[in-house]
Design goal:
It contains no helices and 11 strands. It has 118 residues and is mostly beta strands. Strands 2, 4, 5, 6, 9, 10 and 11 form a 7-stranded mixed β-sheet that branches.
Length: 118
Amino acid sequence: QVRLVESGGGLVQAGGSLRLSCAASGSLLSFDDMGWYRQAPGKQRELVATITGGGRKNYADSVKGRFTISRDNAKNTVWLQMNSLKPEDTAVYYCNADILEGIRNRYWGQGTQVTVSS
């Protein structure tokens, strides 16, 4: 059973930093794309950053230059370093991992709360 466990959320003041971690397990196949999404109250879930198995990265315009995504394929772990945080970054952050099992299946973590105070 595929499982994604996130950690690293919390409360931080504007301008501060947090580092989110997500450890994936339970698959006999390699994880393909991995990434982070977020959902603020009353809003739809939105992409924050993704990274392919080969290391190609993609960021939402709102986080470019402030957030950095990275991964360790050997550890099936993906991180999100968040710097210069803003109150509008407040949301529940979800980790995702794709596995190519004939079709692309996407798995999600349980989410971790990030709150940025002004």
